[in-house]
Specification:
With 164 residues, the chain is α+β, with helices and mostly antiparallel strands. The chain is built from three helices and twelve strands. The longest helix is centred in the N-terminal third of the chain and has 9 residues. The protein binds flavin mononucleotide (FMN).
Length: 164
């Protein structure tokens, strides 16, 4: 009888389920920007407009999101691969290495050159499940930024839309 799988099998399974790529950003109460690359993004509800992201419990970005109660979702376009790599790198100076500006309403970090859309979101609930926390949030506003072709991630590699 199969009673469970380890992380290697689970990763292999999920790598066969491709997704878009987002950079989730927020700022500390003193204004310091925080952000990470995130593909665990899922629509939850249409009315109200809710989505979820899952963030590792040790993430500094998660702690800042829980403190502030708001975040911005930067949906990367096909030219956003370097930004995705930077925000997955763990580098503490990631915001010094990239162009960004504040979002219109909440002044959260917007990566306008790398994203085709940015959504300002307010946290409605956080649920810790295993080593990640599910952050359920309401979309408050959307800014359309540029070319709509999204960056894709699957089989542990980046790809463009439409796939070659
Ligand atoms: C394509 C891709 C998708 C990722 N998706 C997630 C995710 O959904 N949740 C997460 O916690 N980490 C995800 N990561 C890993 C984080 O981006 C990485 O661990 C980051 O350094 C965390 O930053 P922080 O701990 O400073 O907040 C992803 C990495 C890559 C390359």
């Amino acid at each position: 009888m199969i009673i469970g799988v380890g992380p290697t099998t689970f990763r292999a399974l999920m790598s066969t389920f491709p997704s878009g790529v987002a950079i989730v950003t927020t700022s500390e109460t003193d204004g310091a920007p925080r952000g990470l690359t995130c593909s665990s993004l899922c629509s939850v509800s249409l009315e109200p407009p809710l989505l979820l992201v899952c963030i590792g419990n040790g993430s500094g970005t998660l702690a800042a999101i829980q403190d502030r109660g708001v975040f911005a979702l930067n949906l990367l376009h096909h030219g956003g691969r370097e930004a995705a790599e930077l925000f997955a790198s763990g580098r503490p100076d990631r915001f010094q290495r990239i162009e960004w500006r504040p979002t219109p309403n909440l002044a959260l970090p917007c990566l306008a050159a790398h994203a085709h859309a940015a959504a300002e979101c307010a946290v409605r609930r956080c649920v810790t499940m295993g080593d990640h926390t599910v952050v359920i949030a309401e979309v408050l506003d959307v800014e359309w930024l540029g070319p709509a072709e999204p960056l894709l991630y699957g089989l542990r590699t980046y790809a463009e839309w439409p796939p070659a």
